[in-house]
Amino acid sequence: MLDGSGGNMAAALVQMACLYRGRVAVRIPGLFPGLAPGLVPGLAPGLAPVHFRTFSLKKEPELEDNPFYNNYQEKIRRLRSSKPEEFKTLEENRLHKKKEPLGYSTQGEFIKKMEEELEKRDQLAAGGGAAGGFTKDKTLGSILNLDLTQDMTGEDISELWKKFYSTKDTISAVISAETFELLFSRAQSCPTFLFAVPHEEGYEFFLGQWSGQQLHFTSLINAQRLGDHAPSQLILYHYTEVQASKGVVLMTAERDPTFITVHQAQCLANQVQLFYGKQETFRLWCSSLQIAIECQVQKQCMELRATGPAPGRPLLVVTLYYDSLCPGCRVFLTQQLYPTWTLLKDIMTITLVPYTRELQSATSPFSCQHGGAECNTNMMEACILHLAGDASTHIINCMESSGNALHAARPCVEQYWPAGSWAGVEGCVGGGRGLQLIRGHARRTLELDPAHTHLPWITFDGEHSEEMQDKALSSLFHLVCDLYKGGKPPVCTGALVKLDRSLC
Asked: How far apart are the first and last CA of the chain?
């Protein structure tokens, strides 16, 4: 928008997305010239151009169709009369913008440029040249003479570090030992995070990935294009050699100037401090079930263990009786039960009972409502629940979230139970143990009082009512908060947290 004097224009329309499992982030050009050269305030991208005349304030037909024109009509008039040259430049830029080919976008140009640069690097690497330009195994000893720092205080080292990097074309910082300890502990539970860097035409997303005490950044486009082979475009190095003795951790960075400026690198480093180094901000993702689901940080919220129940109060036991291929069961398990458990694990526990509808005899195969595939999946999940312990809930959710739960079993087991044995799971399913487990689940289901009449069937501390069932299916999170008899955790009460909203 224009300011009171009719000068600066600034506005943006930005669509931001969370990334955890391959979601695409979109950069949308701004609506105004200050952010996307050539577009008149209030004129959305793609609309036909407007030919302004210095002798007339008449609205052109195209502007009349724009719902935002009235908001900016007076400001456009002031700009045109007070700064005609600036207005003329904006109009020329807008006309030039319209001549761009259909489908043109800054994002597309960015991708094209990146692909060209990556191709050059590949050719350079193939010819024996250096492809990345980053220092290998960069150590603090390669920067400072550690022997000379032994008699220095933490303050002296901090001043020396700042002075040394004040003239360098990079960024640096001195972090207190306590802050880095908190920051690094957060990095262990949330090693991958999506950061946004503002540009005139929108936001560019960078994927940050911790590797030890180094934090590697690459653009989201780069990560989506090359996956695990995406090169780092910025690396933050954290040196802890003097953390214990001097109480400070020293940070510096290496960047690829082709893609990241010093200012952008500093912006990313500031966001790392904001999101990882502050307890209040880290808890923001867990402040509601909706945020945790949308940003796909249920597991991190569980590990944060921010709910704080009253000591000694027994957990609420939520038991789900279900069929593995029952559509309603799968929706409840993946969209209500698992997300709620990850946020409220300190006040609730869950029991999963995959149920086979009938047993023909003591020795013959059992039958299932959705066929043999469901029988096999029920037995697979029964064995996983029996063998995998605490990891079993994550594995079952992983399976039920996939298109084919049975085919997803092995990769889900390997992801969430890396120390486990897939051969042991197969042995349970193929041997007599799996059948015994399924029979036990069937007996437990048939002994329910009141008897179950449909699936999913949900009990709370062994009790079932249709009222609780209906509430659970619509909002299990709020129901668990209501039913828990201990002190309500902050995530249940919705206590407000004051946040530092500064980013860059």
From this structure: 21
Q: Which domain holds residue 234?
A: 134-277
For residue 307, the tally of other CB atoms under 10 A from its CB is 22
How far apart CA 420 and CA 210 sit, in angstroms, is: 25
In a domain, residue 499? The reply is: no
CA nearest to 15, candidates 203, 201, 208: 203
pLDDT band with cut points at 50, 70 and 90 for residue 4: very low
Question: Which of 183, 151, 175 has the alpha carbon at shortest distance from 248?
Answer: 175
Is there a contact between 503 and 361 (Cβ–Cβ < 8 Å)?
A: no
8 A C-beta contact, residue 488 and residue 340: no
Residue 294 lies in a domain: yes
Q: What per-residue confidence (pLDDT) applies to 65?
A: 55
Peptide bond just before 450 cis, omega within 30 deg: yes
Q: Can you give the pLDDT at residue 253?
A: 92
- 429 within 8 A of 289, measured Cβ to Cβ: no
Q: Stretch 35-64: mean pLDDT, rounded?
A: 38
Instruction: Please report, for the chain, how many H helices and E strands are present, in that order.
Output: 21, 11
Query: In whole angstroms, what is the distance from residue 400 CA to residue 404 CA?
Result: 8
Q: What pLDDT digit, counting tens, does each position of 53-79 carry? A: 333 334 444 544 555 666 667 777 788
Beta strands in 79-232 (DSSP E): 172-176, 192-199, 202-211, 214-219
Instruction: Find all residues with CB under 8 Å of 36, minimum gap 6, and list them.
Output: 29, 30, 45, 97, 106, 200, 201
Residue 86's contacts (CB-CB under 8 Å, 6 or more residues apart) are 79
| Cα–Cα distance measured from residue 75 to residue 77, given in angstroms and rounded to the nearest whole number | 5
What's the pLDDT tens digit per position in 203-237?
788 989 988 889 999 988 888 778 778 888 999 99
CB 245 within 8 A of CB 235: no
Is residue 305 domain-shared with residue 270, that is, in the same domain? Answer: no
CATH number at residue 365: 3.40.30.10
User: Looking at 227-332, which runs of residues are DSSP E strands?
Assistant: 234-239, 248-255, 316-322
Radius of gyration of the chain (CA): 29
Maximum pairwise Cα distance, the chain: 95
Position 125 pLDDT exceeds 70:
no
Q: 285 pLDDT band (50/70/90 cuts)?
A: low
Q: Coil, strand or helix: which one is 300? A: helix
Q: What percent of the chain has pLDDT over 90?
A: 27
Judgement on whether residues 402 and 435 belong to the same structural domain of the protein: yes
Domain count for the chain: 3
